[in-house]
Structure formats: C-alpha cells, structure tokens
Amino acid sequence: MKARPILERVKWLGAIDWDRRLFDALIPLPDGTSYNAYLVEGSQKTVLLDTVDPPMTEVLLRQLESVPRIDYVVSQHAEQDHAGAIPAVLARYPEAELLCSKKARGMLLELLDLDAYRIRVVEDGEALSLGDRSLKFIYTPWVHWPETMVSYLQEDRVLFSCDFFGSHIAASELFVADPGRVLEAAKRYFAEIMMPFRAVIAKNLEKLEGYPVDLIAPSHGQVYGRPSLILDAYRDWVLGEPRNLAVLAYVSMHGSTRRMVDRLAGALVERGVEVESYSLPETDIGKLAMSLVDAGTIVIGTPTVLTGPHPAAAYAAVLANALRPKARFLSIIGSYGWGGKAVETLASLVPRLEVEVLDPVLCMGLPGEADEQALDALAEKIAAKHAEQGFAKRSERNRFD
Ligand code: FEO
C-alpha cells in the first residue's frame, strides 16, 4: 500500500497486518493490526514519526522511495512494533537525527542496532520547528512503557499518540468509520496493556487537555476524525467507577463448578447485578480483559486439581493480578473431590488487587442445597456491596431507548 494523505502535509505510511493473530505471544488479535508511521512535511524540515514492525520494514522503505530527505525520525515508543525499522530508515537517510524521550534513549540503544551519536533527546514540552509548522513533544509515560511520549502538530492540531488511544484493527479506511467496532478494539487494547497504569494515564489525559485536537493519529488502527470519541472512552475506562457487574471466570472438569457458576449467575441477575461469564480454557482472554475494565466484582471458579486450583484458573488469577482492574471485591467458588488448597493458592496469586475478599463457597462434588444457599448468600452480599458503592449497570449509564 502506498503512502496516503491524512492532511495536505501529513501522510500516513506503514503496514496493515491483516493476518497477525497474536501479539507479544500473549494478546489475541481477532481483527489483525496496523503499524502506522506518519510523515510531516514542513516548509524547511521533514519528519517521520515512528516506523513499523521489523518484518514490515521493506513495506515502509518502498513507501519512502519518493521521499528524498528526512531530517528527523521521532521514536515515540521504543517497542519494536514501532521502533524496529528505525535502523533501516536511518541507514537510508544518513542526515536524519533520531529524536526520543530521555528514557527512550537507553532503551533504543539496548533494543536496536543503533549508533548513539544519531540520537538526540528531546525534553518534555520541547518544540521542534519544521519551518511553517512545529511539533511539540509531550511526555506521556506508561502508554505503554515508561519512556512513551506523544507529538502535537500545533498548526494542524494533530496529536500523534503511538500506542495511546490505539486499537488493533486492520482496515483499508484510514479514518474511523465504525465507532462501535473501533471502541471495542480500543478497549481491548487499553485493557491488555494500559489498565495497570491508570493513575499515570489519568495524569496524561489531564496534561493533554491543554492541547486542542482536531485529529488523533495513533500508531495502531485508524485515525480519529472526532477525537472526543476516544477521549471520552478513555476518561470512562481510567476514571469511571466500576459497573454493577460481576465477572465470573471459571473452569469446570465434570460440571460441578459449572453448576455453581450457573446458580450464582442466576442469583446475581435476580438481584439486579449484571453478569459476564467466561469458561476459561476456551476464552479469548482479550474479552475477559475488557470485562475486567468495568467489573465491580471478580469471581473465580475452579475445581481442585492435584490439591490446587485448575491451571487455567491460576492463569486467570495471574492475569487479573497483572492487569490490576478497578474491581473492589473478589470471591472464589469451586468443587473438590476430597480436599486441597485451591482457595489459598488462588488468593496468593492476586496480591496486587485492592479488593475485599468475600467468603468463598466450596463444595464436595456436586453442589447440594446448602451449597446453593451459600451461593445465593454470596450473590446477596455482592449485590449489597455494589449498592453501597453506588455502582450502576450499563443500562443505567447508557440508555438508548
Ligand atoms: Fe504498539 Fe507498545 O507497542
């Protein structure tokens, strides 16, 4: 695909990766992804913002064949999906200087085959004149690594945001055309790589309020012609209260834990709590991560396997611990054959979650009447806790009727 203009002097370059299905050997990509770079041509200087994933280097170099000179390459983020082709671009343009944040300098030198003398650190808030245009660099750490920054093209009010506000979508249209699809993909992306850093991201959002923006051009997915779409969504994901939602993530080997989950789900719904339930071995973990963005309570369901939790349940606990969602309550339910330490082991896997642990419900074999009553009592407790906290259901937050 050739370079394409998003404005008169701003071009999209990069690669659309229609077939990629996994990122970081962890994150499912149901819609593929793209690696976006942007070329800004000022009256005196030309800048390339970010590059592409190393296997796509040739795609970018072909797009650059008609660009005789690049004065600056900006690395907004050192991860290889954006920085990986920088050495090839610098080799093509020996006059180009590589600009990056203070923290990025060391990371780029560690991760890529680069000469240190080609790199110049830019300060937070520093402006770069391109002649009739100017770029301002704004440090925005932890979107997604500590060195990340964004760039603001002042005259055209374009924010180049790299991973920040990005979405893993492969699409031929440059601009967002289907907001629902993009918001879902962007939420998945936020959940998987940024959710743990909400406090810093809140500060970044506040910092960006001083910059009027007409376009947001991320380095994955489509360009936002209506920035409020993604800015409002981020404010909700980062700053909003959890929803009146219980996320049930469970494994069942012979149906006992499954029966407990069904009972709990029914009891929660009867008490006005939303439920999103995931059978772990088959689950797309991206969907689970998206649910965790909003959950008020997390319930992990597990059978006891060789004295501990099922490994898939342990995986979900480790994932939740890493993502640090804003849920305030956690419980564990499950079935065992003769004993074990499933609850203790699972509880030890989530030390970073700031949750109140509600009494677990465990039963031997199939749940009996007393176990079902215990599950109803757990549902009652969850509903009461959510009411105390003032959590609202999705339908109470967004009414379309
Ligand atoms: Fe798209 Fe953190 O790289």
Question: Could you characterize the architecture of this molecule?
Answer:
This protein is of the alpha/beta class and 401 residues long. It folds into two domains: 4-239, Ribonuclease Z/Hydroxyacylglutathione hydrolase-like (Metallo-beta-lactamase, Chain A, 4-Layer Sandwich); 245-389, 3-Layer(aba) Sandwich (Rossmann fold). Helix content is 34%, strand content 25%. Helix 5 (179-193) crosses helix 9 and helix 8 (256-270) packs across helix 12 (369-389). The longest helix is centred in the C-terminal third of the chain and has 21 residues, at 369-389. It is elongated. The protein starts with a strand and ends with a helix. The model has no long low-confidence stretch (mean pLDDT 96). The chain binds MU-OXO-diiron.
